[in-house]
Every structure is written in structure tokens, then in C-alpha cells.
């Protein structure tokens, strides 16, 4: 079908490193058939993808590619949306590619093909492709590397083409992407413009394209972009060059900083380059950045990026829960980075953070109906804020409500592509067996390099329930190793196999056996609600606790409070009266209840009283209430509300 | 000299209401001759004003008014700076007008006259005056009311003209302002454009111009602008219409919201209008907004505006100390508003807040040398950040260092005009006597309506020392009343007069006597360091205390810490080991010392540990240190540093 050779299109995997301890298992090898994520995937397919397609068309962003709009009046008018609008189409195309592979939906397949034709029509003869620049009356090509996002759009186009290639094979989209990639190598190669894009993502796009085509020059170009950054080639701007990571070379940096999504995409591309080139120094540098960022600049939810103003990481331990920014796309970028580091190292800490980001950022963004989205994911909403109506795109990233669409609409398709490809983040293999990183309901079937066939089903009501049952279904005679990730919070986890129960500790629990078909491995994880504190340097949550349930961060939402009780006038008892698990028909059911005391803070003319002691409510009214806690990701599904994750004690 | 009648130019007062319980005393009646504020005024005159003049010229913002620049190439090029650059010239002119009145500096007087000529040359025949709009190749007049700032610039021009009129009399600047005001009334009057400016200040400018000219139509136009706001006439923008207070009519609002400076300027104009028109409903509405804002949306320093992104107030009790925005100009706006409410009500709580903002926001902005400025005034700086070098204007409002100049340079001239006119905020008079609101070193001399002459000198080393000595110098035979503001924090204050000591309580202490020349009234205010807590709903400072000394908020700065001790790893003992006052030769001397414990928070891979209790440092190293505390306003004068106001206990 295509004249371009496409490697490895069977697996359906977002990231395919040339080497590394773990080999990712893709959509061809892992299925999600039930439980939490199957529900989310179904909503993604049935509601979110059509919703995105509707808005992309309605906004005129798809029509930007049509010849009459592209070269229309010649006065630059007629381009709809922001300078990065093309990228939203590409992210939708990537999501559609994964979804077609997951479900086989022929209508979506046809829509994707038609969309590729429409995009292809806008490509210049030399491969250049952008609807906001380089056309009559619009700014010239590459005239604004800081803010123009041309290479950024290419990066998402390449990711979409790679997804399609790995799930379907080369097609017109792939041809378009190939011409774009060649154009980029010519234009920005060693003999070309010594520039780089204000918003990284071309790096990982080119590296993946090199993997799928097995052509070195794309990787070289990716490496060149990674190396160019950090040398003040981009302009100094209001937020400083750290905003786009042009302050310090990637291999010299010790922590992620600046715009969180940019930082995470760049780090992902750097891991791709390091893995392909065997650059252990670069890999080590990014691993250090990940560790420092997780230890000092990450919300309990796994969310990253504290500032609204520049969507950036704050200084160490600046993690205010009210007005937490924690952009949805930073959650996506965090999964991208952690997954690459997991494949490169085998360290389960990366899968721990993926799980946290999946349940508490990615799952929090879409409403339960899949038709509105959080852009920012605050951990404390003080007052109910109605969202925009369903027909109005939001101009604001920051609100206590989900919006159906945004003028900057990066988040909805970013979530959609992650959910559609989620099976590819569940398990990996090595020479001796399979590593199960995420506890979905579904099945895994693959073959090890020496031909051993490994297949098992996984059943659970995780994360509401902590029991995960694995049924071996393959007929492989030889022993193989099943490795189970034991999350860091899972003190007291147990594995039962062949009638024997053994305690396992956080990290990895491995069983090497000649498993017989029908045999069961039962993992019990202690998901019951637990209290969590914070490093004392996170000033903003001093004197508070959070409650977690398995991988779920819980929250109190005003919808569950008795009349007259306000969330900002509550203190919880220090011992959690956590109830047993209450798995619910709807996701907003409480999974824990804590005892709390209702307080009545006095409204003072000046809120800074003396002497000390008045902030302990000594003289204030005090009455006990039950405070149900729901999963954080489920809040704001019952109308405008207030909410808090961190509870004063 | 002028063909325009100018009322009341002797007093030198920024605000002259037609009625109200208190009559302001201006530069002609109050002198500051020594102490804290005299030092600040000297620095303002000798360093800051020449510094601002240099930068205004260097930036090209003054040259914008010159004909060759204004009508130059005709392609719109040649305008330097942002769309509101004109306003910085006007604020500088206002500052210069006050300073000439204060010091009589003939060179500055000549500079001001020359500048007025340069400005006058740019005025159109119909009175229009703006360098960024309405000229060849530039956007048309009033084509962008949301962001164009044309009326905003007029507001500052009117304030400058009023300052000059009240200290000198009508001059060319005043003629220019008169033509601008007439143009505004024609253009935006009941028969004109039914619009309003995205940035209020024209309201108070016009109201003051009405007072100085005694012409009703300027007041009517000010009232019209106040009434027009809040009805969604301005466009919905990313930050919402609350950003420019166009969400709720002024008389319906219950709290200040949106962009803090805009909110405070608008409220000031509304008080001016309410006072002149006897609109008690409007006055009451603004007083309620002030009260709610002070009770729920104000930093301990008196600073207002928590958000960086939109420079706006946050929700109630969202007052994070790290990355507090607390814009310097909001401190100026807060003084403007509180002063107007004080004149309209006589309530000393307004003078309390003025004092707080003066010592902890206005005084914090300029460096001790008067040549660099904070734009934002954070209450917690986690890491030392070097400022830009002295030759580079900062593009960033937010930093832990002062900058010599800003691309948006509102703050330096705003501070300068406040400091130059500071004597006018010290005292007021009514029919029976004088109210002393601020404890400067200097003198007050005025005449009561019935002819009684009141004169006294004030001496003190306040705020380092709490003793204020007032010497009567007038020969008035009849009794009059001296009213002394007793700050809200001053429990235990005493007044000694004629050998008798009496305890006085926060509020006002009044003495009505036939004072004899040379008699002394001695007020002692308990300034010694005290602990301060916070409303429990201010989550961001839970478990912390602040230390205040008189009106000074204190802070710990890294410059005073032993090597190896970090501010973010310190806890203070709950009882303040406050030393006696240590008045210093330089302002960075410590005025209090508290005992603290040095802790060694463990760096964990994940900063959210369990079980609860680990955030009390139970297992961590602990060693006592002495923690000197300096006035908050004096921090960052000894090189880049970290700093915190709120101290964990």
C-alpha cells in the first residue's frame, strides 16, 4: 500500500525503544475488557472522540487546511484559532488511530482517512505544512520560533503518523509525515537554520519516526534539537528562557522547570534520543530531573505545574492546593516521560507515578459523560463556579468547572489519545516473562524471544477493591516469570499462589513457574483508606492530611455535606474513621468516610488575630459531622461545588 | 497666570472632598522633618525622582510626545513602550508637583514646566491627547477601550494637573488637562460613546478636577463612568469581566475583585463621586467592599491581590505567602481608597490600614538607595534570585529582587508620588481640633473654621520606638481637641499629659484642652514584637506565626542566618523571645530576635509520607538557633536572599 517501509506495525505501541530492559506490549498484546478503564475507554470512544471531532470542525480548525481558506483572500484573514490549531487535529488523528486499532470502528477509520486527505492537500511541494504561517498574507515560515509552534505541530503530526503506522501500516498520513520530517531535516539540519521550537515535542516525534522507519537521520535531527536547547538561542521573554527550557542544556539540568508541558515533552524526547544513541549521561540526567521533580515539585495527585501565569513549575515545595494549576496535558506529558524511563530502567517507581497520574489527573479531566474537560486540576476549590454552557468554548484555563471546549484546546485530544492507547501502558516483557504494571481488567498475550507463549487474564474491581486475580490461559510448558508491581503505598500486600500466601513488599513481586492453564495468582493490595501527610516544606498544606484509597486521591466535595456545613470550616479527626470500601454504581460514590468537626470561624474585621491560639478554634462552635470522601477524579460531576483534598486536622 | 479659576491651591492636598467629617491637612499645614519617612522622602527626592526621569527619557516614552515621533513615518512605527506609557510621564509629573511643593526645588520645577510644554505639543485641537492611538499609522482613537488605556492615561494627567494646581496654581499642564477633561465630557458624555475604560482612574481624576475647578460637569462625567461599569459593556476576556470590574455594578458589589489596582482605583473614584453627590448608598457599598476585602482578601502586610496571572484578588482567604503578588501599585491604590473613606467617615480603622500599607508595601518597594523597586511584594521567597543589572529594564513583575526599571513601569512613579505627598496623609482637622493619624516626626499647623490656631511639633523614633512626644507650639487661648489614633494592635497604650498617665484603647484618644505653648503630650505605643496568627481559613499559613513590631511586619532573611541554616527548615518556639527594640543606623538591623529550631527535613523520593506524624519532624535533627527578624520592607537590600514572614511553629 505504501512505498515507504514501515517497521513493526503489528504491536500498536506508542513507544518502541531499540533497546532497554523492558519491551513494551501494545494493543495487539494487551486488552482492557472491563472495570474502571474499560468504562473510561468506552466513554472516550462513544462520547469524547465525536465531541472533539464536532468542535474541531465547528471551530474551523480543520477547514484551515482547505485550499480556499489556506490561500483565500491573501490578506491573512481566514485562519481560525490560535497558531497551534493544527496540532489539535493531529492529536485527534493520533487518538483516532489508536481507537481504530482498539475497537476496529470502520466509520472512525474512514473519517481518519478522509482527514488525512484534507491535511495532505495543505502540504507544500517541499513538505512544509502549516496553516498559520507561510501562506499569502500570513507570517513567513519560521518567522517566530518562540511562539509560532510550527515544529510543535509537526511533532504531533509525526506522533499521529507513527500511531497509524504501528496499528495499520503506512498510509497517506504517513507519507505526509515523511515529507514533513524530510523537510525539517533539510531546514533545521546541521547546514540549516540553527534554531529550535519554543514548544518541544518535535524531538520525540522525530525519534519515534526514526524508530518506525529505521532511518538514522530523523534520530540525528531529534538529537540535534535536544542538544540545541539550553543555550539561549530563543529570545528572553517575560517568563524568562526557563519557560521553554532554553536556560540550561538538557544534560546539565537537575530538575524540570518552566512550562510544565514543554518540560515533560522535552524530557521525553531526550529519553528517546538517549535510548537510541546509548547516551547514558543524557539518560541519567533526565532520570535525576524526574526524581527531583517528583520529590519537590509534584502534587499528591501526580499533577505538575503550580503556576497559572506561565503554566510552569514553581520553586521547590511551592505546591499550593488552592489554584493548583496541574494542567491536564502535564499529566499526559508525565505519563509519556515516566513510561519511557520505565522502559529504559525497569524501575517500578515510574509505573507508580503513571498510575497516580492516570487515576488523579488524566481521569479527572473529562466529566463522567466525556463531553467536558478540566484544563487545570486544582486540589482545592473554595467556591462553586458554574461552567460555561455546552455551546461556548472557554477562554479560561482556570475554573472550578469543566468546559466543553477551550480556545486553547490541547487537553481534550491529549486525554483522548492517552485513553485510546491505554492498553499499551499496562504491561511489558523481557527475556524471561511479563511485567504487569497496571491492574486493569482484561488480558495479556505475548511471546517471549525464545518462543515461550505467555497469556493470562486479569480480573479485578481495582482500584475500589484491592484483589487482583490473574488466570493463566496459555499452554506454555516452560517456566516463565510473572512480575507484579507492588505500589509504594501497598504495605501489607500479599500474593496467593497454589494455596500459599506470601507477603510482598513495595517494588516488584516476581513468580517464576511453569504455570498451568487455569491456574490463578491472587494479589491483594491494601487499598483501604489511609492518611497521608506532606513534607513540612510544602507550606501550603501544613497542618493538613489527605486521604488516599489505593491509587486514588480522595476529596471532600460540598455536594456531600449537610446543609450549612462549609468545607472551609471543617477539621478532621486525626484518626481516620475510614469505612470499608463502598464500590459504587456511579463513580462519585464515597469510598471512605472520616469523622470531622464543624467549626465556625469568626469573621473578624482583620483576619490576623493575636494572641496565638485563636487559630486553634479554642473558643469556637464545634460539632461533629460525617465527611464522605469521593475519588478526586470524580468531583464536579454533580453541578458546581466546592472541594478540597487536603483536610485541616 | 491662568485664565482658569483654580480653587484652593494653597493646601497641597491630594483629595479635597466638598463635605465630610474630616478636612484633610495638606503640605501647607503638615511638615515631615525627620525620622523614617523624612529619610524616605529624601531618598525619593535625591535618588528616585532623577532615576525615574532618566528612565522615562531613555525609554523614549517622553519623546513619544514630540511631533516627529507622533506623526513621524506615518506607518505607526516610532511609538516606544506599551499603550499606557503616557501615564508614567503623568505620574512622574504628579510626583514632581508634590516634590516641588515639599522642597521648593527650582530645578525640578523647571523640569516640570518644560515637560508640560512637551506634553502640550502633542495635544490635538479638540483636546485629544494620546501618543499610542489616534495618529497616522496608529490605531484609531478609542478603538480598544478594553486595553487601550486612553482614559486611564487621562486620569493620571488630571491627577498631575490637580496636584500642580493645589500646590502652585493653574499653569500650562492645567490648561492641557482642562482641554482633555472637556474632550472627555464631549466624547463620553450622555450623548457620546456609552463606553468606559478597561482600567479605571479617570473617575477619581475627573472628580478631583471637578473639585479644583468647581465645575459640575466633570463630576457628572465621573459619576457616569462609575455607573456605567458593571453592566458588561466591555468585552468578555480570558480573565472574565471581573478583571476590570465590569461584572457587577459598583453599588451592588460586596467585595473587591478582579485586577487589584483597577478595583482600588475604581472604588476610590466611587467614594469621590459619592462624597460630592451625597450618595450614601454608594458610599456604604464601597465601605462594605473595603471591609470584606480587608477581612478576607488582604495580606498581613496590607498588600492586596494574590494572583500573578491576572494581578487580581483571589477568592476569600486565598492568600499564599509564597508567590504573593501584592503589587506595589495596589498598595498605592489601597492608601488612596482608605484615605477617602477615612475623610468620609472619620473611622480610624482606615488610618490603621494606611499605616500598614505604607510601612509594609509602599516602603518595601524601593531599595534603600531608591534606585530599584519591587513590582510584586511576596511574603515568602524560597530561593535567592539575582535582580537584573542596573542597565536592564525587567520584563518580569515577579521576582525575589528589585529591578531598576520595568517594561511596565507603573510602580516606581506611583511610589514616588505617594512619598512626595506623604505629609498630606498625616493629619486632618474638624471644627474642634486636629486628628493625628500617622506618627511622623515633624509639625502640624492649621486654623480651625472659627479661627482657632492649632500648631504642634511631633517627635519620635517611631516605628522603632513607641514613644511619640507632641509639643504644642501655638499660642491659641481657647481649648481645642487633639485626637490621636491608637492602632488596633496597641493594647496597653498610654497618654501622659500634665503629669497624669492614662490608659487608652485602640481607636481614638482625644484630649480637649486649652493647651499652653510648650506643653507636652506623650503617647506611648507598645511596639515591642508580638506574635500574630491567621484566620484558620487562610490555609496557606496554617501552623505558622508572624512577628510584628508596632506597624512593622517582620521577616527572617537568609542574610542573617548562620551558615548551613535554611529558612525553609526552621521552626520557631511558640513564645517569642523578642528582644528589646534595637533601632539601627541602617534599616536592615534586626528589631527582634526569636528562638528557633533548626530542622533537617528528610529528602524523600515522594514528599507525601505516611503515617501522619512525620510532618512534625519527630525523628529529625533539631538544634536551636537565634533568628533575627528585620522589618519586612527592608529585605533584599543585602544581595539576593531568601525570606519569610510566616514562620512555622
From TrEMBL, chains A, B:
Residue stretches making up the Non-reducing end beta-L-arabinofuranosidase-like GH127 middle domain: 434-526
GO molecular function, one term: hydrolase activity
Annotated signal peptide: none
Region annotated Disordered, chain positions: 1-22
UniProt keyword Transmembrane, yes or no: no
Keyword Endoplasmic reticulum: no
Domain Non-reducing end beta-L-arabinofuranosidase-like GH127 C-terminal: 530-648
Coiled-coil intervals, chain numbering: none
Start-end of Basic and acidic residues biased regions: 1-11
Domain Non-reducing end beta-L-arabinofuranosidase-like GH127 catalytic: 29-423
Keyword vocabulary terms for this entry: Hydrolase
BP term (GO), one: carbohydrate metabolic process
Protein name, per record: Glycoside hydrolase family 127 protein
Species in which this protein is naturally found: Jiangella asiatica
